[in-house]
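so my prof wants the structure for this chain in the tokens format not the other one, which i didnt know existed until like an hour ago. anyway here's the sequence
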Amino acid sequence: MNVSKDIKPGEVLLELEEIQMFFGKVCALNGVSTKIKKGEIHSVIGPNGAGKTVMMNCISGLYHPQKGNIYYKGEKINGLKPHNRAKLGIARTFQKVEVFGGMTVLDNIRLGRHIHYNSGIISGSLYMGKTGKEEIEHRKFIEEEIIDLLEIEHIRHKPVGMLPYGLQKRVELGRAIALEPELLLLDEPLAGLNLEEVEDMARFILDVNQEERWKVTCILVEHDMGVVMDLSDNVFVLNFGNMIVDGTPEEVQGNPEVVRAYLGEEDLYATRR
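here's what i got, hopefully its the right format
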């Protein structure tokens, strides 16, 4: 499938329509529907086990829902495998860091450029002609754009497995944006980070979303309510696979169902760092 339709800012980029996902008799997503507009940061929140990561896995193609439809730029992508969705411009990070520890920072990020290589098998195996030129161009892009953006110049030749967890998170983000996606799925990118690292990561996400060079639409799964309320254009709330509300941060903050299901009787901002 080749989805080349040009979606303008404010138009619907991704739509979930009555998604149902079962694991045996357990309903992980129950008729979930939402629309993600191009250019926004749309956060997904809810208690542990609410179905947030399941929702992300359905969008990225790791899971295929038993019922409902997923539309990207108006085209149904239900049956597409993850690598085909990546070719359409959908990238992601994971709840638990998924990096190649024995490879360098630069090589990990280079993996995200795979869909942009056009050289053939012979040229690639011999590393000659078009392949060599492409490699130079992609490496230049990574070093001048991504490594500079994420402020990891000083560690670019270090094995990722030797880095602190916070820097590994940056590398995984770098690999995702190396794909130059239109839609970026961020599954708890702040989990396990200290306050300074949280502030840095939040800044990087804003840069990727707002800077003219990138302008990437983001779906953010996150537990840090302070960051969610500060960054998000819209917030989608799940509870045991059911949608509670899908609205602006202000609407979510004032919704009594959200307070009861997600925060008990506490005020939403009580969880801010």
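also thought this was worth mentioning. The CA atoms of residues 13 and 185 lie 13 Å apart.
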